[in-house]
Write a structure and sequence with these properties.
By secondary structure, this protein is mainly beta. It has 1 helix and 4 strands; from the N terminus they run βαβββ. The chain has a 4-stranded mixed sheet, with no helix packed on it. The longest helix is centred in the N-terminal third of the chain and has 10 residues, at 19-28.
Length: 78
């Protein structure tokens, strides 16, 4: 039985953004998808998600100084 790593306390929350949310993020940061850091489609944290290349993933990490930090990654082939 394979473990779902997204349930592990050390794995931050990952969420696939909707297209309108992606546009908001890109506009906010005056960026293109190609400007975002990559995350491979086969990343263990994405295994339980229905993701495709060019999807954008929001990652929310707890931060001792900021409360939480939000990161964005674009899905790529490994």
């Amino acid at each position: 039985m394979a473990m779902d790593v997204s349930d592990h306390e050390a794995v931050p929350q990952h969420r696939k953004l909707e297209e309108d949310e992606i546009e908001e993020v890109l506009e906010k940061y005056d960026a293109d998808r190609s400007d975002l850091p990559n995350i491979e489609r086969t990343d263990a944290a994405l295994k339980q998600m229905d993701v495709e290349v060019d999807d954008v993933i929001e990652i929310v990490r707890e931060s001792p100084t900021a409360g939480e930090s939000v990161y964005y990654r674009v899905v790529v082939e490994p």
